[in-house]
Amino acid sequence: MTPRRRLRRAVIIGLFLVLVGGGIYTAATLVQRSEKLITEECTAAVGTQRSQLATDQAANAALITAVSVRRGLPPRAASIALATAMQESKLRNISHGDLAGPDSRGLFQQRPSQGWGTQEQVMDPVYAANAFYDALVKVPGYATLEITDAAQRVQRSAYPTAYAEHESMGRAFASALTGETPAALNCTLRSPEAAGDPAVLLSELGAAYGNIPAAATGQTVKVEVADSYAWSVAHWAVANAKELSVERVDVGNKRWDRKARDGWQDAPDAGGGVAITLAAAGS
User: Fold this and answer.
1) What is the arithmetic mean of pLDDT over 24-34?
2) Is 43:185 a contact under the CB 8 Å cutoff?
3) Sign of the dihedral through C-alpha 93, 90, 230, 197
4) In DSSP terms, which residues pair with 105 in a beta bridge?
5) Which residues contact 27 (CB under 8 A, 6 or more apart)?
6) Do residues 46 and 177 lie in contact, with contact meaning Cβ atoms separated by under 8 Å?
7) Interatomic CA distance for residues 217 and 53, integer angstroms
8) Given a cut of 60, is residue 19 above it in pLDDT?
9) Is the pLDDT at 156 greater than 70, yes or no?
10) What sign results for the dihedral spanned by CA atoms 44, 46, 50, 51?
């Protein structure tokens, strides 16, 4: 091969590598930009009702509802609790009160000075949810009351009608998160930023549902529950997918896939229970 041909060949190969490298860089850049354009949120769609929450709000809603499921309460109890927490704290575990309640704290803005517990206790979401339900079940006929009336009998708010603004959200998310309505909760998320930790997921699952039969094999946690309880756990996993790096949830013949971002789809039967698959390192 003559020197001129060798030079021409080297130039062609160099240009090819530049184009390939540029294409890979462009593709990676487009993927990164498309990720940033994704609005992360969770949606509960039940019948004609459709409500959205931010991912941190949805995770708190899932915990509040899981506590009601653990206690064997009807979905109505979770509806009341969610509407209440949305009004009191926007479903966020805030560490401050307001003029009406300077010492109010937590998801339900419970006041230590009014006998709800210590500040540390009411800032614990599990304790706060249980304290709310402890008071709610003492309200005669709470399950047949209007949500705003039941909430007010527990909270004794200066703005008793405000809870009504959140009834639709409370009903939709409670119906999904109690498992009453299958495949009703979807979260649209970016790719996980880190690998998931099965031990952390098992700890959070236990805090929410109590002594629940669950075990990890590699990056998959299998929870041995059935029927509406299975759908409650499955929706809880989706609502916590951002924080816990959940990539896939299988229950029955349905699957939620974080990467697909198309909600619950038909899939091979999971063989009973709920399978929660976490992101692996480098995925």
Assistant:
1) 45
2) yes
3) negative
4) 110
5) none
6) no
7) 31
8) no
9) yes
10) negative
